[in-house]
Amino acid sequence: MNAIRRRAVIGLAVTALTVPTTVALGTAPAAAASCNVTTGPYQKQVEKFLGRPVDGRQSLADCKAIRSFQLKHGITPSAGYAGTVTWRTMSTMLAQRAAGTNPNRDGKCPTNKGRIACVDLTRQLSWIQDGSRLKYGPVPVRTGKAASPTRTGAKKIYWRNINHWSTLYNVSMPYAQFFDGGQAFHSTTKSMWNPPGSGGCVNMRSADAKAYWNLLRNGDDVFVYGRKPGT
Q1: 164 catalytic residue (yes or no)
Q2: What b-and-e string marks burial along 125-150, b requiring 16 or more CB atoms within 10 Å of the CB?
Q3: For this structure, is 201 an active site residue?
Q4: Given this model, what pLDDT does residue 76 score?
Q5: Which candidate in 35, 63, 118, 201 is catalytic?
Q6: pLDDT (tens digit, 9 = 90+) per residue, 20-32?
Q7: DSSP state string for 101-164
Q8: Which backbone phi and psi does 133 adopt, to 5 degrees?
Q9: Domain boundaries in the chain?
Q10: Crossing angle (nearest 10°) for helices 84-99 and 60-73
Q11: What is the tens place of the pLDDT at every residue in 46-56?
């Protein structure tokens, strides 16, 4: 009996030592399964953007890096595949970086209006200028999706509400400044690069929306131009 007991105790001890290893190994395939290890059509571009080795072949490490980017910005499916939406998002970021401190280099936003808020849908950028002098920005924005685009053209801010609540979407719209029907500048907690986009408003990060609130007034000009990528 003593020998049997000893063997039972040793067996339990060995089992206790091996269970965590078995669980860890058992979760590895599940974690890998959440990643799409297929090489995507924009593999090299995405690898370069993320600072990964640029070989054009999807690896598990590539997939995890891509998936982390997708999760951060709400890109679905977040499976680590270097597809169209992911690369479009990255391309927009690159265009925003290239704008530097001279977003109106091409002169598409009027410089003869005095203080004006410019919105470039193509680069998903906005800034405030006074004549040709940059007053604030440029900052990334999230504009309307294909089904509810942010309308282009010359507008004016006509109503402001610092703690606006949208009864249409049942959401808070802090620092709301309306310039075209129900379309307004306002802050949001979503990523500026979260597809497919807003319901038509120009979404901004909280600090940027607050700065716009402090710089703009009713009657100030707004100019929206370009076309949002993917619409």
Answers
A1: no
A2: bbbbbeeeebebbbbbbbbbbeebbb
A3: yes
A4: 94
A5: 201
A6: 222 222 334 444 4
A7: T-TTTT--S-SSSSEEEEEETTTTEEEEEETTEEEEEEEE-B-B-TTSPPPPEEEE--EEEEEE
A8: -90, 125
A9: 1-33, 34-99, 102-225
A10: 70
A11: 999 999 999 99
SS3 per residue for 183-212: EEEEECCCCCCCCCCECCCEEECHHHHHHH
Q: For residue 9, give the amino acid letter.
A: V
Residue with tokens 């995507």: 40
* 113's tokens: 């209006």
- 229 closest CA partner among 138, 155, 144, 108: 144
Phi, psi at 223, each rounded to 5°? -130, 120
- Catalytic position from the list 35, 109, 164, 186: 186
Radius of gyration from C-alpha coordinates of the chain: 25
CATH of domain 102-225: 2.40.440.10
CB contact at 8 A, 160 and 178: yes
Euclidean distance between CA atoms 133 and 101, whole angstroms: 11
